[in-house]
């Protein structure tokens, strides 16, 4: 007898948790549906525990497995009745939002009965409640939600009993019926028949807490989108943004092309590449770190306006702004310079903002951003002087004087790492760029084009036609983040070779320093410079055939989506971001 009581308690506990989990979605099974008999004291105890069960922030592993076992049993019961709990198809006539729109004028308590008002919908059940011979389910599809009004007398055969016995929150249902608005004003489908299209085996997160574990949200994005509809809305807006970019580019006469992801040399940027090995060719290949060099080859081949929206891969750090794979658009236009790319950047961003928001004043993390054209355009030298008080035009090429003046002006605002970065600069141009990154970038909140970068950090840009030591290059900043990078493209093959060779030499110096100092510095892994950089000889050959004067620009689509969806981090706008291996 004692063993029987123990067994009864062990069996009842997971079942009780399952039913109370469902109750958090506003539905609770009645005790009579249990397949075992509970004593009155057990039932009373279950009532006392309802509040604590419903407020549990997460379902424990043991509860999940118990619920899964119960639902697997339901799958077998459904199959035993000759039904398939994993259907092949369902003929939908409307989405939830379409029904909300069509019947928005239906009065409270009014019901439609004509043949034309028979509808068929499908979606996931996210809430349920029952009162004797009446049950209410909330169905969500891609467009929104609608209530299912399930009355025993309306349903054929024993479907009402099937609904109560077999339908759980999380199941995907198809339902057919007519339309009514309840006395309380809720538009509903009066269900005449239904079918379980997909039986869910695992419980959804608690309705009142949602999926709050940040790591789990990214790792199980499919659950995140079910539990948090706003997350799915971000990815719908992302699709609008990408479509808007394509429409803008196509309307301006640009041709979309595709270039290789696997490349023999990782060029077009300075970044650590991912390396793979091709067995048939017997050689290493690199995942591309930019699309630039192949798009320029298209210009050599005779195309005058080209662009590519593509994935880029860089084997570097992960942060709120960086993911190892990300999406950019790069575009190139023959016979134009970097001034035209500023106009294009304004056009792309404003058109995307209008597509998503219908206006050009947006909120980003509590800050109002105005995207009305024209945007501010200022040189890097002037911005650094404005923010830090340092005029780099006074130093010429005297690096030591420039370093001393910089440290005396800003040393009190530097930590040891930033001070070391300034001391390690190899030219006045590198120092100017370092001061800009430390002190100016974070203050560029409203859209700003930063013009005329030092030649040392711009190996693919044309020399400035009026200022020695600078290039015709700009970067676009909004909310303290770089959003775009553009040049008047370098077309001189001899100058290009010299600059790329200098870049390789500088990189080899860094590699040697990393090797001499060991793999770690100040307790932090410092191997981002330990990879090998090689010249793309085929690109240099292409330039020798002649590339027309051109401008080019790259825009970060992930960062643009962050801006236009008010998302704080890059992982919030990538459906399945790269994460650490789960321990």
TrEMBL record:
Residues 39-64, 509-528 are annotated as: Disordered. Keywords: Aminoacyl-tRNA synthetase, ATP-binding, Ligase, Metal-binding, Nucleotide-binding, Protein biosynthesis. Residues 235-575 form the Aminoacyl-transfer RNA synthetases class-II family profile domain. GO terms for biological process: lysyl-tRNA aminoacylation. It catalyses: tRNA(Lys) + L-lysine + ATP = L-lysyl-tRNA(Lys) + AMP + diphosphate. The keyword Cell inner membrane does not apply. SUPFAM superfamilies: Class II aaRS and biotin synthetases (SSF55681), Nucleic acid-binding proteins (SSF50249). Its EC number is 6.1.1.6. This is Lysine--tRNA ligase. The lineage of its organism: Eukaryota, Viridiplantae, Streptophyta, Embryophyta, Tracheophyta.
